[in-house]
Amino acid sequence: MKITLLGTGDTTGTPLVGCTCPICTEGAASGRERLRTSLLVEHEGFTLLIDTSPDLRRQLLQTGSPHIDAVIWTHGHYDHFAGFNDFYRVQRYPPGYGAPVVVEYMQNQFHFIRFTAHPQEPYVPFTLGGLTITLGEVNHPPAPTFGLLIEDGETRVGYTADTNPDIPQRTKDLLDGCDLFFADALFPNGIVHPKHMNYSEAVSLAGELHAKDFRLVHLSHKIGWDAPHIGYDGDTFVL
Ligand SMILES: [Zn+2]
Ligand SMILES: [Zn+2]
Ligand SMILES: [Zn+2]
């Protein structure tokens, strides 16, 4: 299994438009950037996209224009779905997977698009291209949001999606002991947000869940460019 981080930013991306903070200023000067968070998963010729960010067109171009065989949406927030129409005249719209409430939301949002919807019950594993996927509810009020476990028979990769640290125990059990774990870390230590983890909360969760390796994603412009444990756009992991 190969994972590519197509983006590691939050809903605004970094640099934040119009922001003159040191991190955005340095990013604009050096060309460093965090596109909106999305993951590409490749396994035995099958290519899976986790969330369709508003930056999807550029993310596809930057990764060699892969054909996407399926999409999984974690939740119905703009930064996680708005790019779906970027498949228009590029390829047939991929089939869309996710929890029933999320898939139904996407069918309403994209009522003008013909795509096949495949609602999946949380905590019930399903297979996609030789991968076993299991959705697990997280805590990102008020949007119903689902992290996921991806297994290829040898390795286990987990992703929290957007969430505060108060994750249901059933999902913690699902995501325990991953070989590679991605966690939402919006803000630096000291900033507590009702919908997201901050840096230390995300690092603590990775430890609590016995992740063998982890990267923090969905980073805001307040997280420094060289903070330990953060993921970078374009990072690839071959497992
Ligand atoms: Zn988000
Ligand atoms: Zn800034
Ligand atoms: Zn969100």
From TrEMBL:
What InterPro entries has UniProt attached to this entry? Metallo-B-lactamas, RibonucZ/Hydroxyglut_hydro
Which SUPFAM superfamilies does its entry note? Metallo-hydrolase/oxidoreductase
Q: Highest taxon of the source? A: Archaea
Query: What Pfam families has UniProt attached to this entry?
Result: Lactamase_B_2 (PF12706)
Signal peptide coordinates:
none
Occurrences of domain Metallo-beta-lactamase (ranges): 35-221
Protein name (database record): MBL fold metallo-hydrolase
Q: Which organism is it from?
A: Methanogenium marinum
